[in-house]
Amino acid sequence: MSRIRFDFATVALEAELLDTPTARAIAAALPMSSSVLTWGEEVYFEVPVKVTAEKDARAVVTPGEVAYWPQGHCIALGYGRTPISRGDEIRLASPCNIFAQARGDVKTLVQVKAGSTVTVTSVA
Questions:
Q1: Which end of the chain is less enclosed by CB atoms within 10 A, N or C?
Q2: Model's pTM, two decimal places?
Q3: Secondary structure of residue 105 in the 3-state scheme
Q4: pLDDT per residue as tens digits for the range 29-53
Q5: Domain annotation covers residue 124
Q6: How far is Cα 36 from Cα 86, in angstroms, rounded to an integer?
Q7: What is the signed CA dihedral for 109, 51, 28, 100, rounded to 10 degrees?
């Protein structure tokens, strides 16, 4: 599959798309821009994509997994604990579709501030 790039005001991150219906829907909607929200150690933002939960959707993710949150129509990048995490897990608000794998250190997302703009583009 192809790669995408998240450009935040303070940091950029690339991710490799997986072969999933959600990844194809996200890729078809590129480029896109949105306003960033944060929730604990998670960055998320609304996107113009509406897909349903896939059969393997889950709420607990590992660092670097890029998720789509069907209930909120958002891309979610968890890099640490959220308000509902148990222990050191990364627990998103509800089950999400994992559609990409980040290339690089997602801990750099700690620099991203709520209200900043993110642009998502395809990488050639």
A1: C
A2: 0.95
A3: coil
A4: 999 999 999 999 999 999 999 999 9
A5: no
A6: 24
A7: 40
Residues counted in the chain: 124
Q: Are 109 and 43 in contact (CB under 8 A)?
A: yes
Can you tell me which residue has the tokens 């627990």?
91
- Whether residue 100 is contained in a domain is answered as yes
- Residue 123's beta-bridge partner residues? 3
Q: Is residue 123 domain-resident?
A: no
**What letter does residue 75 receive in the DSSP assignment?**
E
d(CA 84, CA 38) in angstroms, rounded, equals: 14
Locate all alpha helices (DSSP H) within the chain, ordered by sequence.
21-29
CATH number of the domain within which 78 lies? 2.40.100.20
Q: What pLDDT is recorded for position 71?
A: 96
How confident is the model over 68-92, as pLDDT tens digits?
A: 999 999 999 999 999 999 999 999 9
Rounded-to-10 torsion of CA 31, 33, 36, 41? 10
* Tokens 């794998």 found at: 101
23 within a domain of the structure (yes/no): yes
Residue in the block written with tokens 């897909």: 51
71 Cβ neighbours under 8 A, 6+ residues apart: 93, 94
